[in-house]
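I'll show a typical protein example:
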Amino acid sequence: MNIKKQLAGTSRYILISLVLVFFCNLINAQEKGTFKDARDGRIYQWIKIGKKTWMAENLKFNTAQGSWAYNNDTANVALHGRLYTWNAATTACPKGWILPADIDWTLAIAKLGGAEVAGGKFQEMDSLYWNAHPNIPATAKTISSLLGGVMHADNTFTGVSVWGGLWSATIVTDVPNNYLFARGDKSIGKSSNDKSSAFGVRCVKK
């Protein structure tokens, strides 16, 4: 065998491999990032799930009506974001972003391995938030930002640090859907609630 030809072939193979690795790394680098909400200047983490770009943390924008800090304590906003009625949630997302519908949730859940594990995968996204906010106490980092609880229609708050939910834009017979997360549970549940209850919001890019 011609040694020069063999070496040349090996060199081409190595070069092609390096190019492929470079472009794969470039693609992966574009799978997550940040954006600024021009309304209040907050910086949010985002992550690509399948073909959709999702916020990787809960929305914190203080709407004129229909949103609350859990237990009316603004200290809870840093970790869990705000809780929104469904009507407020449908208009609360920043420009260029929308409240995800059931089809968006279905595709994301499938991409993350199915309902039995997708809840855990969503909770793992908190690592992006922790890295971006190193000043958050270590004790807070043991609790997923998704476990923001709920404000019920009677204005009582329950569930923070134990469970939480995110609204869907999909509504069936005047009752909107939401997706539920629980501490220590890798699954993701689906339910429906009164529009005047308040849950968390994660937006998807249009």
